[in-house]
Design a protein that fits this description.
Blueprint lengths: L2 H23 L4 H23 L6 H26 L5 H23 L2 H37 L7 H11 L11 H13 L5 E5 L6 H10 L1 H6 L4 E5 L6 H13 L25 E6 L4 H7 L6 E7 L7 E4 L5 H13 L10 H10 L4 H10 L5 H12 L8 H14 L3 H9 L9 E2 H12 L3 H13 L4 E4 L13 E4 L2 H11 L9 E3 L9 H5 L9 E6 L17 E6 L3 E3 L12 E6 L6 E3 L12 E5 L16 E5 L14 H4 L5 E5 L19 E5 L19 E3 L21 E3 L21 E3 L21 E4 L8 H6 L4 E4 L12
Helix pairs in contact: 1-2, 1-3, 2-5, 3-4, 4-5, 5-19, 6-19, 7-8, 12-14, 13-15, 14-16, 16-20, 18-19
Amino acid sequence: MALNDFFAGEIAAELLKMLISISRKSLLCRASADHLIGYIQELLPTIEEIKYSGVELPALRQSQLHRLSELLRSGVTLSHKVLSSSRWNIYRNLHLARKMEKLEKTVSSFLLGPMQAHIMADVHHMRFEMAESFDRLQHSCTRLEHYFANMKIGVGPAAWLHEAVRSDAAPHCGGSAVGLAFGISKVKEMLFGREDLWLLGISGIGGSGKTTLAIELCNDHQVRCYFRERILFLSVSQSPNVEQLRTRIWGYIMGNERLDSDFVVPQWMPQFECRSETRTLIVLDDVWTLPVLEQLACRIPGCKFLVVSRFKFQNVLSYEVELLSEEDALSLFCHHAFGQKSIPLSANENLVKQVVSECRRLPLALKVIGASLRDQTEMFWMSVKSRLSQGQSIGESYQNNLIERMAISINYLPEMIKECFLDLCSFPEDKRIPLDVLINMWVEIHDIPETEAYAIVVELSNKNLITLMKDARAGGMYSSCFEISVTQHDVLRDLALNLSNRASINERRRLVMPKRENGIPREWLRFKHRPFQAQIVSIHTGEMKQEDWCNLEFPEAEVLIINFTSTEYFLPPFIDRMPNLRALIIINYSATYACLHNVSVFKSLFNLRSLWLEKVFTPVLSGIVMESLGKLFIVLCKINSSLEGKEADLVQVFPNLFELTLDHCDDLTQLPSSICGMKSLQNLSLTNCHNLTQLPAELGKLRSLEILRLYACPDLKTIPPSMCDMMRLKYVDISQCVNLTCFPEEIGRLVSLEKIDMRECCMIRNVPKSAISLQSLRLVICDEEVSGIWKEVEKAKPNVHIQVSEQYFDLDWLKE
């Protein structure tokens, strides 16, 4: 018996023990480990037989058995890493999954190689078991990849991301309300106690919990009853669109929240214009200057304004948010560091208290630093504590010192996650970032797959560095990433800006206008004689004309973000000198649609892969070919026939497009038939297009289509029968298509269809008999009153789950 035989047997036995431990300890890997346990238990007798057979193997077969033992040893090492990895450490789990995938390929290559010629007769059955078992263990770690891939079609719970969304979106999330009871009672006294007090405030330093206090107040049962649910929450920020905010306030007070964007609100809102004295609470969050406040707030019968600001304004009675007590600070920190409100017995109590002390009782610092230490070793804690103790105390210059302290947490992040966090400073403060925008940007500039980008989103959320917000939809746990957006605390954005701006302006990786400017910043102009090396360029201005631009060079730019507030906008001429541009994001924040000029610069964007247009008149791109463009998002835009006619042959303009989204395009009545010629299109989303009445009869020509979203298209009455030709279609969303009456009769031909979402489709009263042939169908989401139409399908196909959507009450107004 060769020594290799013995070691192979010992390693297999150890791997079996490890897998049993994984099965008992790790919920994430339990199922896969159980499968592997069964396999290794079958493998052990074979190895034992070789081990004790007394037969000396030829040298070549001994070397091959040695290779087998090395592979098993790799399995033991990976099992150790799985056991030591926290189930919340999504990013690490993703990398473990990739290592497992590499191991699986090695196993497959080994078994397909020279070994076949010598021992295939002994192990031919083992090859398939080995490949399957490693694949299952890989699956346990790569469930993240499957969940995120499925999330694009809304299948499965997508546990990590949706847990993060739920915990962040819920008003009473975890320990965020720790220590706020006293502040809530004080502000309620101010609200209820004095009828003559129409303007009051909440003030405090950045990161002290002002906004959290305001949100908790809005969700307080007594407050909601007092104001009869009439509460409007608005973020103002450093660069507010005052007219748009005034219109929203005036419309809400007058009971007309859909005021025309051209409506001119009086410079002062005279009380005689307000016919109703219904109690109303207007919360103005993140107000920076008194002149802005004076334009937004005025005395109106029954209306009270609550101003949340870092500053105390003259003549505004304010409650100043106090720092947390030592007890509350420890409770909040432990909630984010350990998932409980006290120090666990296994932790070093003195060390924990020292770190908490260094956070200086500031809620934001406690949350960020606590989350960064979760599941870390004691040596790591000691290192962070040492770095924190070297910083200055948080005194008069608290803002800079707070940023420096939280920067310590950022510097301990893995390099890729740190870079992605810093990228967030490229977006305007207090604005929601659509998750699609963020994911596409990271995919392009960091050359990572979408699955890794999603994992980074979850990791940043788990560390309290971003907040994930979900648009309200019934049965929200099944909503896709399309309904998710990202927000960030303004102090954390300041932190990202501070860290990004430490290099000289021409050498910065991100060149950002931190707030809205009237034109190009002077600092940019001062150094315009040299090329800027930025990968990300973020512009935030009002109206820009041709003469407002100057010659700037961005040879390395891969992402250009253009934020503006105006009805006319001349696109930067230097775009045609961005040869490496991969993602272009154009967002108009004004109340009206904007007309884009100089669209001819698109001709030079040979490498552009993703284009996002929001609240603009969609430009006619005749004569332009965007060969590399794969993703096109048209959101809140006026189409104006720009996608129709011979001059707008979409196949010629976008020959390789694989994802097209048209969202809230209210003048879209018919989908252009030229779209049906897009052979590469895999994802078509037509959402909230309330005047869409007809789809092209040739829609079925989209043979590569996997995702079809027709969400909230109430005027749509039929789906073309040709849809049944889409053999690759996996997901159909027709929810809130309230006038849709039936499915195509031959729907059973959709052999790949996995999910149907048909919430609020009350007019559909039967399912075609062919639906029984939907061999891949796993999930149908519908309302209770129509769930019965799927009983025959459910009876014939036990694997199909009929999910009855639950009633969902919209609190989204708190986040607007």
